[in-house]
Amino acid sequence: MPLRMKLTAITLDCPDPEALAAFYRQATGLEAHPKSNSDFAGLNGDDGLLIGFQRVDDYRAPCWPDQAVAQQLHLDFAVDDLDEAEALLLELGAAKPEYQPGGEGWRVLIDPAGHPFCLTKRAV
Question: What pTM does this model have?
Answer without folding.
Answer: 0.83
